[in-house]
Structures are given as structure tokens and as C-alpha cells.
Q: What sequence folds into this?
């Protein structure tokens, strides 16, 4: 997969060197099952039409630039992690747009002309709620109009599991309330972080990208692995911990000093020592009533 960073105004050289493609659009934080449906839909169309598969995403979440609602600066999948998942899904080109105030002000028709037609999109795929252009005035009903017949459009319908829309917002809610054991249902895999492990015996330090979205404070059962290593242990996370660093205690003593490209998998919530009554594992008021 080739990753192509884009700054506004988009360079003519990038447009001229772009290959005919089916373009999947979205921020794709988590690349959850709903996102995977969008990408797999685009992949099938690309195969049928003999085109390359491309994804366009943003380097920053739009909320960090547009002052509306909560600002998202921590991610289920930071960009490097997201790119790895895209590659596994068979994406050929990843366009990463630097989302600035100037980009936020691009009119919807201009976005289509410069960023979709300009990158040789022959078909565009996005979720039913995708919006583009200044103040989100472009949507999946407007896109066929803005395309002016220059590319086809496929809208992917809402994806649900257990009568809930699968979304990054849902995943962040589950993570922030400690319900990590529910994540595979919607993400298609456990919640994981990529990083580096250093230590010996039964204790190690896991260093990772501090922009990962952290679970609620508490103690968790976790798994650490890479291509040659697999071990279970416990990790206690507190809100006062240094960003990007966790201590893990393994259930058995291990012989290692350092592990590159390790993955920390959050398996189960064990205990909430801060006794947060709003913790999703159970409202303490309900627990008191049942005792």
C-alpha cells in the first residue's frame, strides 16, 4: 500500500500521478465492522471494474478544527495503526488529507472536483451518514449531483449489531467505561495497542503512542504478544499515569528484556479501584440494592 499525504491546495503532481480508482471515504477510527463493510464494498467494485482500491481519510479528526461538539484527539486506531489495517484489507492507495481550517471551508462541489475527480476516482463509496464540504452541506444524496456523471456512487447502509449502530462513538463509549470484553462484537477483534515492551521477570513497561484512546481507570486482564511471544497478565491503569506508558504484571515469570512491535490486547475488566459509580460494569447504586 502506498500512503500519500495531501495538503491543501492539493498538488497538481499528486493529481497527475493518481491512478484510476474506487475511492472509499471516511475517518475510519477503529476500522470497525461497519467501516470494513464500506471498504469491502469498494474492494468488490474495484475488482469488478479492474481499478485500484483507494481510501481517503484525514490526519486529524474534523472535531479538532470545527468548533462543534466534543473534540476528539485520541483514537481507537492512530493513523499508523489504521494504515496497517487498511493494508490488510487490500487497500492500494491511502490518501491522508491534512484537515485544516482551509480544508473545512472547501465548498462541497469544489471538494468533489479537486479531491475526488482530481484523484481519478471512477467510483466513490461511503457510509449513509458521510458528509463533506463546508458545513457538511455535501452528503450522500448530494454526491451523485456533484459528480455530474464523472463517477459512480455507492452508499453503504447502516450496519447494526444487537440493534445498535456500529460506530466509533459506540466503541469509544465501551472503552471509556471499561467494557473491553464487548469490543470484539463491534470491532471484529479485541481492542489492541501497538508498542514496545521492556522488562524482565514478571513485570514490564509497555510504551505506546499516547494518542490511543484509553479505557476507564481500573485493573484489566491483558495479553501481550508479537510474532514470537504470547503471555497473559494484569495491567492497572490510573488516570494519573504517565501518557503512553503502562506497567504490566505477567502471571508467570518470563525470560526477555525487550520486545519490538508488541501488541497489548485488552481482554477483560477486573476491578475499578476508583469506585466510579458510573462505571459500565455496574452502577454501584444498583449493586447496593441487590445486596
A:
Amino acid at each position: 500500500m502506498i500512503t500519500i499525504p495531501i495538503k491543501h491546495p492539493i498538488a497538481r503532481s499528486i493529481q497527475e500521478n493518481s491512478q484510476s480508482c474506487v475511492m472509499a471515504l471516511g475517518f475510519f477510527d477503529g476500522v470497525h465492522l461497519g467501516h470494513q463493510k464500506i471498504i469491502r464494498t469498494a474492494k468488490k467494485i474495484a475488482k469488478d471494474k479492474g481499478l485500484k482500491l483507494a481510501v481517503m481519510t484525514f490526519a486529524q479528526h474534523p472535531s479538532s478544527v470545527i468548533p462543534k461538539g466534543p473534540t476528539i484527539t485520541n483514537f481507537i486506531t492512530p493513523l499508523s495503526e489504521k494504515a496497517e489495517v487498511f493494508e490488510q484489507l487490500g487497500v492500494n492507495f491511502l490518501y491522508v488529507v491534512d484537515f485544516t481550517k482551509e480544508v473545512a471551508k472547501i465548498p462541497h462541489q469544489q471538494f468533489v472536483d479537486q479531491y475526488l475527480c482530481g484523484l481519478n476516482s471512477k467510483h466513490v463509496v461511503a457510509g449513509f451518514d458521510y458528509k463533506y464540504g463546508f458545513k457538511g452541506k455535501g452528503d450522500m444524496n448530494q454526491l451523485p449531483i456533484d459528480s455530474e456523471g464523472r463517477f459512480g456512487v455507492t452508499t453503504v447502509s447502516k450496519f447494526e449489531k444487537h440493534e445498535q449502530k456500529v460506530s466509533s462513538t459506540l466503541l469509544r463509549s465501551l472503552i471509556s467505561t471499561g467494557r473491553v470484553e464487548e469490543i470484539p462484537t463491534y470491532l471484529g477483534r479485541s481492542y489492541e495497542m501497538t508498542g514496545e515492551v521492556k522488562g524482565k521477570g514478571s513485570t514490564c513497561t509497555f510504551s505506546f503512542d499516547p494518542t490511543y484512546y484509553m479505557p476507564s481507570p481500573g485493573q484489566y486482564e491483558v495479553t501481550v504478544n508479537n510474532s514470537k511471544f504470547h503471555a497473559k497478565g494484569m495491567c492497572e491503569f490510573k488516570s494519573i499515569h504517565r501518557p503512553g506508558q503502562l506497567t504490566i504484571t505477567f502471571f508467570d515469570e518470563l525470560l526477555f528484556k525487550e520486545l519490538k512491535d508488541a501488541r497489548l490486547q485488552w481482554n477483560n475488566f477486573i476491578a475499578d479501584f476508583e469506585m466510579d459509580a458510573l462505571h459500565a460494569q455496574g452502577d454501584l447504586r444498583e449493586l447496593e440494592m441487590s445486596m
